[in-house]
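Hi D.,

Good news: the full-assembly prediction came through. Inputs first.
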Amino acid sequence: MESNPSFLTDTELAPELYPEVVEKLCSIYQKKVYPVESTYRFDEFHAPFLRECDFRAKPMVLLLGQYSVGKTSFIKFLLGRDFPGMMIGPNPTTDRFVAIMHGDDDRVIPGNAVAVDDDKPFHALNRFGASFLGKFEASECSAPVLEYTTFIDTPGVLSGEKQRIGRSYDFVSAVTWFSERCDMILLLFDAHKLDISDEFKRCIEALKGQDDKIRVVLNKADIVSSQELMRVYGALMWSLGKVVPTPEAMRVYISSFWDKPYKNEEYLNLFEAERRDLLGDLKSLPRMSAVRKINELVKRARLVKVHAFILSHLRAKMPALWGKQSKQDELTHNLLEEFREIKKKYRLPVGDFPDIDRFKEHLKQHDFTTFPKLDMKLISKIDEVLSVDIPQLMKEVSPTPQIVE
Amino acid sequence: MESNPSFLTDTELAPELYPEVVEKLCSIYQKKVYPVESTYRFDEFHAPFLRECDFRAKPMVLLLGQYSVGKTSFIKFLLGRDFPGMMIGPNPTTDRFVAIMHGDDDRVIPGNAVAVDDDKPFHALNRFGASFLGKFEASECSAPVLEYTTFIDTPGVLSGEKQRIGRSYDFVSAVTWFSERCDMILLLFDAHKLDISDEFKRCIEALKGQDDKIRVVLNKADIVSSQELMRVYGALMWSLGKVVPTPEAMRVYISSFWDKPYKNEEYLNLFEAERRDLLGDLKSLPRMSAVRKINELVKRARLVKVHAFILSHLRAKMPALWGKQSKQDELTHNLLEEFREIKKKYRLPVGDFPDIDRFKEHLKQHDFTTFPKLDMKLISKIDEVLSVDIPQLMKEVSPTPQIVE
Ligand SMILES: Nc1ncnc2c1ncn2[C@@H]1O[C@H](COP(=O)(O)OP(=O)(O)OP(=O)(O)O)[C@@H](O)[C@H]1O
Ligand SMILES: Nc1ncnc2c1ncn2[C@@H]1O[C@H](COP(=O)(O)OP(=O)(O)OP(=O)(O)O)[C@@H](O)[C@H]1O
Ligand SMILES: [Mg+2]
Ligand SMILES: [Mg+2]
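Then the structure:
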């Protein structure tokens, strides 16, 4: 009955690779992509410039579930210790989003402070407003697993009415934001009291597109009889299959994840094997996270390139003297034609072009004559990123050929 | 490791009740319902008259599954013996529908002979034609469980192409026919080789409306590892939940159902408990079947009553001398109006009326002046059935108040 997961001291968990790779990625961005972004005002059209902390952020695991399924206990179990501000109890206890992160000293940092901290990847949470930030905090402490992972504990999902009355912010939006930024989403269920409220179903549906990150945990599996466990597990899969559209069943880890001994030892082998598998899955996070970040930068770099061509193309079409406004209107109106011309001229894939209606909206706020001219030398840096730097980095992350995607 | 299910010698399985109840039901039909049916030519509009064997037919269990999941072995296990014509093997073996029924001597009766046998409830199979009857047979032998149950073994479902090429009759229609007449439908799956082909999905979808009869068997559960069993079971529920629209998961029996010892004994307790539950479920069949037959007769009697009113009403509206054809056309055209009048006059529930378009079709082939006149005395027998005989019989079947529906 091991209650301390073996991997906590396992050196495999510490692939020095991860910090190295993200440093390199960050430097590629800063030296070759950012200059193009800033010249062509990418942030005014698409997304804020990336900051160092966006790269350095550790792989993130989001925990979701009805209240009392054992989310907080699960994190305590992985840490092998209590974390600052931790509360565990039979009633709804966790009442906020908590980022459990590595820190040399134990401390709790309020949401408002976290969101302005340049070293933490939570700036964007400002947009959820003060009432959300009042329900968000970081809990810093030191534990082996935190060197390579940040956990996001969440308030348990309540049934519809209670949920809405109790909360001053949009729970599902907050969950969606975290789910897009994290590398693994753990959906926890309680074998003793299976409950999938409509509210939680909406939550799961909001994770659409993130399906490959989702893992399911059927927790407290040791406190029901073997037949009962089968019924509960079957009912869980039956219901999840109806909510999640993928034909392949999600991976479910059936065990008990806390630091107490198993109650019912009939399935001891299963429970232990499932624990091992889940811990193994967590160990692969740094690599998965690195690959995800690389892919995101690739997607961004392609968009940056197309963006630079679009702006310089529009600029080039503007008249030198009069008729500026009408020409600008005409170009906007015929934007699809202009896109086609750019695509053909520079041989760009159509999939790299931005959404045309959204782009038109942005264009309205600009004077095309202020757009920078075509700077081929600058833009060619992006090609270098895509054809040399990134493939090189991918090799470092996935040294064995079969893992290279 | 008991390999012979204990209930085979269990007297509980033999509720003398069942034959008694169906005899009474048969006599109610013959004395009070049939006279109305034959006077008002019910068979020409709705369904053939019922025969004694329709009542006396034993509770029926239909087995369905991909090939080689162990359907035939399952029946052998329940019988505690081989049955005539039985074939078991790793390749697709059973190539026909087989009704395994009680008989003092061991013998196989070809489909054509079964379908004309007045003692067997398979007359209606004639409508599937000779090529189906060539792939149907009855296997008679003596075994305790057969005193109270008939099993329908079926050819394993193959993948789409093979299925269609190999079969000269419509498999799904045949399955649908049996599913409507049986009391339990067992869907068997092989834990070792889970396969739910599109063909089998179509089969399951065709069982719509019979959901409450369906039970699932995850067979050969002892020849995979405990973790593998969980994955397979989860995948099964995930897929079934997508095919079957009910929110509640179907009951699945996870075990191995044949006469050999379990291979993997890790889940011994579960496997044994699941076997016991399934056998217990089979034991409740005679009562369930009796209740189902009573309900069906109630539905039929209500339809018969309405039918008698409709025909006598149309007859009464016909002119004595001329204009018969045009009056008949007018009545048919305004049938909805006539239905409303009948409904109001005799205070009949709208739900008891037949489908109007189908009824119009039938009317075309009749001369309304040949319809019998209203015979209130005759029809009042039906009310007697509904208000006295059936409630009395229901009490006998469900003596405890909480079981009465
Ligand atoms: N693996 C487990 N087996 C049995 N009981 C557990 C397990 N994990 C936690 N519990 C118990 O369940 C209750 C809820 O635990 P916990 O507070 O960790 O859940 P939670 O999901 O974080 O709840 P909330 O959503 O309210 O924050 C506590 O009483 C805890 O002791
Ligand atoms: N419970 C069981 N555990 C392991 N093997 C089994 C079990 N039941 C049957 N088998 C084996 O599986 C194979 C198929 O068995 P069987 O012929 O009963 O299946 P079936 O579903 O009737 O196949 P078909 O659809 O082709 O008629 C045989 O080799 C049989 O010995
Ligand atoms: Mg909690
Ligand atoms: Mg067979």
